[in-house]
Amino acid sequence: MTFTRQNIYGLGSTWAPAVLWYARGVKAMKARAIADPNSWSFYGAIHGIYPPLWTKYGYLSPTMPKPKPADVKRYWDQCQHGSWYFLPWHRGYLLAFEANVRAEIVKLGGPATWALPYWNYFAPNQFKLPPAFATQSWPDGATDNPLFVKQRYGPNNNGNVFVPVNMVNLNALGDPDFTGVSSGSPGFGGLDTGFSHGGPTHGGIETQPHDYVHGLVGGANPAAPNTQPGLMSDPDTAALDPIFWLHHANIDRLWAAWRKAGHTDPTDPDWLKGPGNTGGRIFSMPMPGAVAWDYTPQQMVSLATLGYQYDSLTPAVAPVSPVQPMVRLEALGAGTAALAGAGGLDDMASGKNVELVGASPKPVAIVGSDITTAVALDPATRRKVADNLTESAALSDGASLDRVFLNLENVRGAADATAFSVYVDLPEGTDPALHPERLAGSIALFGVRKASLADDEHGGAGLNYSLEITQIVDALHLEDKLDVDTLGIRFVPTNPVSKSAKISIGRISIYRQGL
């Protein structure tokens, strides 16, 4: 049997059968004790568990029966973030969760063909939280709808939950490489790592839209925004929110869409065979009946082999595109246009070498609603970037266009629900909404609390983000604004950031990546 995952907004009604049965399956899993490997809470802990928050939100208490130590060791705190295993690990996690929900549905007399819906927030008029998740009531009027959770606050922390489509993008789908480069492109799928339960550098599709949707859907309790994030905002509570699974089904769908476009997954045995290939922890899930299922990334590649499909692999485009990717075409004429048509500017640079162009002189604190700083540029490297842009524009000897990246290094803090947009060369006082062409990207600090702890596996070094600014630098070059000693960087938080959130960026750097 091939199961078909469908867009929740295409099912016909708020409580379409697939949604109603999902709610019934979720309720059945929630009725199981956390000691049961097939329970809702146990599955949440597989992704991650932070006992203080779990206790505060009512998912954990001293009187609850404890899982077997062997089950905790095998399954809990397993999610892969900041790693090239991000996509295949979550695909297996989704499959196992879906099988458990389906098993509960069948026990209740429901269809054995049930499949998990996905939420395509990029599609027109589908950016709002699906209605069945926004009400405490079932269709019959009962008020214990398990799809509704109190700790889901939305972008403005006021309970209005939606995805701000002008701040999310699908730029990662244009990256031809799955595996990233440190300080350069993080790749579509992330950097080469071992088992990584919270790595410091997130891949392209993980940064956007994955992290941003997590942070903005979850939000935070306005009464305690630094200590009470929404469930979706923190990796150690995210999988307790029923919308988590529809969000990740969409991310999984986008991986399939990227592959359909002709891109390929890694062929390195360390990726194909997973971290167990080098002595690391294996990926394992409790299937119905608490039967252990171990899997590798290689086994996660083919949807057909796994027995499921999506009703559509068309990646809808956000209504507002923050960056026009071919800004140089009008200025440079048909020669460059022809080259762009053959593969696009993103495909022109196949080099993996990176070189520092400039960096900020000191750490930057993110406090308030508008933060401005600057990156000091190295004159020689800046000229190298400018020369490359000039040569590429003239198509001289088939010159390859450098890619340029703005890196936010060692981002630390206490508030996972923090999100902000980053602009380049945008003067202080200028309305950012009027200059989407200067938007480098929008990020949400999903996982920053844990990554900032001194006892974290990375020593509290925080998170790193890499935003491609090739088109912005190209535009500055065309406008003769690149011959400067510093480049202004501006941060505009979604909500004002308090000093007590302790958000800081250790260094802001600019790197070129090329041959």
Describe the structure.
Strand 2 and strand 3 form a beta hairpin. It is built from 14 helices and 13 strands. The longest helix is centred in the N-terminal third of the chain and has 22 residues. It has 515 residues and is an alpha+beta fold. The strands form three sheets. Strands 5, 6, 7, 8, 9, 10, 11, 12 and 13 form a nine-stranded antiparallel sheet that branches. The chain is globular.
**Helix count, DSSP H or I runs of 4 or more residues:** 14
Low-confidence stretches: 318-350
Helix/strand order: EHHHHHHHHEEHEHHEEEHEEEHEHEE
Mean pLDDT: 91
Gyration radius (Cα, Å) is: 23 Å
Which structural category do the helix and sheet elements fall into?
alpha+beta
Helix amount:
25-40%
Q: Any idea what the shape is?
A: globular
Say how many strands there are: 13
Cα distance, first to last residue?
47 Å
Largest pleated sheet: 9 strands, antiparallel
β-strand percent reads 15-25%
Task: Please provide a brief summary of the model.
It contains 14 helices and 13 strands. It has helices at 17-30, 40-47, 51-56, 69-75, 86-107, 204-218, 243-260, 269-272, 303-306, 329-332, 334-343, 379-393, 448-451, 470-478, and strands at 3-5, 283-287, 291-295, 308-310, 353-359, 364-365, 371-377, 403-412, 419-424, 439-444, 463-468, 486-493, 504-514. A hairpin with a 3-residue loop joins strand 2 (283-287) and strand 3 (291-295).
Task: Please describe the structure with a list of short key phrases separated by commas or semicolons.
single chain; 515 residues; alpha+beta; two-stranded parallel ribbon; 14 helices; globular
